[in-house]
Amino acid sequence: MFGTAVRQLGYAWSMISGRRFRLKDVSALVDDMRATMEQFGSPGEGADDLLAATDPEIQEDLTRRRLKQTVRHAATETPYYRHLLKDDGIIPPTRKEALRGMPSAFVSDLAKPALLAYTTGTTGAPTMVWFSAYELELMSAMAALSLMMSGGLRTDHIWANAVSSRSIAQVIAERGVTRTGAAFVNLGIVDPAVALDRLATPLHVPGRRPQITHLNLNASYLGALVQEAERGGWSPRDFCLEEVWSGGEVLTDALRGRAEEMFGAPVHDGYSMTEIAPVSGEVCADGHLHMPADQGMVEVLDPVTMEPAEAGAIGVLVVTPWSAFRDTTLLLRYVTGDLVRVLSEPPECARAAIPATSRILGRMVGDQGLTTRDILDALQAERDLPLPSRYALDGGVLYVVADKKDRALAVRLEERLSTGVVLVEGPEELPAPCHVRADLIEHSFERPR
Ligand SMILES: [Zn+2]
Q: Residue of 19, 314, 325, 377 with fewest CB within 10 Å of its CB?
């Protein structure tokens, strides 16, 4: 018990001071937590305090100090910020193009780069982000703590990942899940029929549930699975899922509802991005996206002026991961490109202490003020439209992939979105390509049963 207390103090000290973590402490903390869970079945009293947000004033002071440290590291250690930051203290936002154009200019002189991760690049060319062994081990240990304490992951669970194998999320999830004692399956983004087979197949191994219990994937691939399952006559009885985690893309209420109906498990909506790891967010029951300030600074800026967006307005998420967590690719005020709406009123939900915005709205599509979420909400409310939803806006007209021409459906969409709508029969008929992450499909020799 004394050892645990000392490790918790060490962990808390790094969280408060913003200094580097002692990996030995963090790793031992994971082992302690796992042993407690195996013995008592729950994390024990006070464990929540480790991950909980502190009161706003203390949080503000911490944020100021961590920001100062992070800026100092970036300004003295990276070619990009050494050149950019002057003595006037102004830190201009960092655009994606800058990182994409010269990834090595953001790598600290003191770094020991160990792993190169590529972003999926559905919105352009992939971005390269280097990580060190320190970062990987720290983030995996933190993922393990969070999975055990707030995620309720237990040693008999089986977690399946169906995300791009090139992503850092894959590496962290594999290491994080196995550290908790649960089992990990790299399902991959395979033919949806093959994926359903794998989810439904009993695994018969000691100490584990009979089938996969947790599924982690992108929203468009969730759509592909739901459609395949509905068309194939699958039902919740075929699966043993306890939780589905969707991230990386806009998840609509309509798709979440259909997925919960089909898989008989709650679908959670999360937000993360390779460049800003370990900063991440989770959507609460009231539909806010909560992003804790412990891992980095999160700003919502007007997309044009880059000044703080006002209450109720749409802004872009701009994130600075703290240098206590990141020692390789250092980013200050990174413009994620992901839009959210600033809440009009402070949240009153169970997670009100954690800073919140609206859920991710995606990008602006065309110039009629429509966001990705506006369009997906409208399309996915129509059960007759195929999943994943595909569309393209051209000259003020929204082209939508539909299985068949349905005039009444097109009129409903036109009324809802206040734009002209043309239904087309396949993605190749769209005026511009509509890339979704479900397209990152991996070939396999398997045939679905
Ligand atoms: Zn909330």
A: 19
